[in-house]
Design brief:
The structure is a homodimer of 155-residue chains. The first copy, chain A, has helices spanning 11-18, 24-35, 42-52, 58-70, 111-123; strands spanning 74-77, 85-88, 95-99, 105-108, 126-139, 153-154. Chain A is α/β, with parallel strands linked by helices and 155 residues long. In chain A, α2 (24-35) crosses α3 and α3 (42-52) crosses α4 (58-70). The structure holds a DNA duplex (30 and 30 nucleotides).
Chain lengths: 155, 155
DNA sequence: CACGGGATGCAACCATTTTGCAATTGCGAC
DNA sequence: GTCGCAATTGCAAAATGGTTGCATCCCGTG
């Protein structure tokens, strides 16, 4: 249990692995991040955190997410608007479809696209460090999207 | 010459097509954008513009790029950092490799990836409005990247 | 259970972008 | 050509999203 912690580990384990102290704010922030199934921005995270502990400052949320992002515990996205949005990095890697009409975000993964990316990078003499694929979409027709309301994951 | 203007058209044609007045600042800003081969941010654009006409305000550059972006004359990118960067939209569509060590940006295009994206969107009941694929890369080895110094385009 | 450095809250600050407003100017009508 | 007026601009102030200095607090080791 000592290699590369994720949000599904306990706060104690994560902090020990990263050489950080276990504090009240960190407990709450990591718990919120661990149980989030969406892609909240920092202000939304702070809103959720203060429902559990109203004394936690927004600055602490900013400091904590940056820390967790640097340590690859969470991933940062921006999705067009200015704000940074976060999700746990322990889910398998995936990209995003963003419904431009509703803001809904659908996760997907394509091994084939990933393979083509590797190929392109290699052809240019590079190796991939990370990548970001966001597809902004609109419903094909008004009925088609009614089947699900929440983010899903597909292959 | 009356359908969908691009930066390679004259400023007069672009403005006429968009119902805008031809002004000094717009002449200079569009000229700079048309001849740019890189992806300048707004402050850099303003720096280039003021070398030709020092009286143009930064706010005007912001207003003009937003206008051109809304009209799909230019494209906006963000590439990780906070700033918006722009490039002419009349180049054929392409995505970007970003060298994380040097900041170099290499343009590429893959019909196959585009096709797979369409397929994924359709499978979820959506059509693609736009998309953004950025691959952050590092040199495979220290020699391999020495063959070119400037952005290129490939298939 | 005392101590020291890491962590926090707060407010001030920073970078980027937007906006209110008064002054200027392009351009169609005469 | 020039008049009139709305579009455009410059400027400064403000909004937005995020960072930071600092005094205080408190985790965890001894």
């Amino acid at each position: 249990m000592s290699r590369k912690p994720t949000l599904s580990d306990s706060v104690e384990e994560i902090c020990r692995a990263l050489g950080l102290r276990v504090t009240g704010p960190r407990r709450v922030i990591m718990q919120i991040l661990a149980e989030a199934t969406d892609h909240p921005d920092t202000v939304e995270l702070h809103r959720r955190v203060t429902q559990i502990d109203p004394s936690v400052a927004l600055a602490t949320v900013y400091r904590t997410v940056k820390l967790l992002e640097d340590k690859k515990i969470i991933e940062r996205h921006t999705f067009g608007d200015g704000r940074a949005r976060y999700e746990s990095a322990d889910h398998a890697h995936h990209d995003h479809l963003i419904d431009v009409e509703t803001g809904d975000i659908i996760e997907f993964h394509s091994d084939e696209i990933e393979r083509l990316q590797e190929e392109i990078a290699r052809k240019h003499g590079y190796k991939i460090v990370s990548h970001k694929l966001e597809i902004f979409v609109a419903p094909l027709d008004k009925q088609a999207k009614s089947t699900s309301r929440k983010a899903r994951k597909t292959s």
